Each structure stands twice: as structure tokens, then as C-alpha cells.
Amino acid sequence: MIVCVGVASRDTIYALPRHPDPDDRVVATQRVIAGGGTAATAAVAIARLGCDVRFVGVIDGDLEGVEVVRIPGRMVESTILVGEGTRAIVTTEPDPFEVPRGALDDAEWVHVDHVGYRALPASNNLQLSVDAGNAIPNLSMDDVTLYAPTKETDDGRRAKLTVVTHGADGCIAYTGDETIEVPGFPVDAVSTLGAGDVFHGALLAALVRGLPLRDALVRANACAALSCRGLDGRSAIPTWDELERSLA
Q: What percent of the chain has pLDDT above 70?
């Protein structure tokens, strides 16, 4: 069981021919309302890849294939503009919460974002994966098994395993013994929304399936790239069989 703790959101996504200037008006070519959020999208990716997963957070409704521990509160709402190969996100601040008793039971891995890390119990003995795409104050590397910043947020700190994502250029993993570079997976991208979240979920799913680290990184890269075929961050996430076919 992988437990993902943190943000779920409801996203309104507009595809635009260009990003608007101040006081501008741009007509969207497409509009989609879809689920998003850092930890929630990672959980959906894990489920799509055939692994048992539980999500803990503030959320309305369900997640496809995911056991949900629902925390009372106001779910995050975001508006996202996708155009010219980039995206702009307007969102609300997530409500803080605490993980309820029993929600982390049977967890082989616990995966958190910046909100999920603060929600964890102070004393725990977890195999912890941290999505460091957003700043996490007072993050202690002593608690972290897998640290996953982007190239922009990489501060040089290293956990037992650190994986720095480089977007379309792939990723670099650092262990105590070696550095592993894995190139990006080519795809005709519609939007990169949620690709980092999918990467983290796919990496954990591959590790839980027992794959060697390099093979797990290859699949995480490919899964994240394939998710970019959709305007939202979830609809194009492949199943495990689809992922394997893409690598054949």
C-alpha cells in the first residue's frame, strides 16, 4: 500500500492560443474541468498503474481506483491557463489538516507534498517520499527516504535517494553510491499540467513492483510524458500495460 497525503484540487483549465496581456481578452479553444492537486494526482497515477493506494486529504468526491480518507474542509479550486507551451496557475491556499489515526496503517511508502508533510504525526517510522516542487519549511532530510525536487527547487540537499526532475529532459537520481541520468521520453505534448505529480506516483509504483531503480526511473519518465497528451493532468495517464507497450 502507498499512502499519498496532501493536496487535491478542482481545476478549470483553459487552452489558449496565447497568454493574455494586462486588460486583454483571449478566447479559449478548449475548457475542461478536472481533478488535480499534487498528492491526489500522484495517487491516481499509482492506481492507474495497478498498485494499491490510499489518499488522505481535503477532497470532494472520489478518486478513480483510490481508497480515500476524507478530511473535512474546503477543497482547493484552481484556474489554469495553458498556451504557448507554458501554463499559468491561479489557485487558493490549501487548508492545513492532521492525518487521522490509522490512516497510515499498512503503508509501504508514504508520499507527501508541502501540505501533506505538515499533516504527518510528529513521531513516525515511515518510508517517506517527498515531492519538493513547492517549498517545505523545516523539512528534515533525516526523515526522508526519497526526496524529489525539480531542477528549479533543488537546493543541493540529498536523502538516501534524491531524484531531481528536469521536465522534458528527464531526471537525475542520486544515491549514496551512484548518479543515474535518464533522458526524457518523446511525446507530442498538449499540456504539462500534473506531469511532475504523475512522475512521482509512477516512480513509487515501479519501485513497489520491485523494479531496479534505473528501470523505475525510465517508466516514471515515460508515464509522466504520456500524461502530457491530455489538457488536464490525469485523463491521459497510461495503465501499466499501456506504459510497457510504449517502451517496447
A: 99
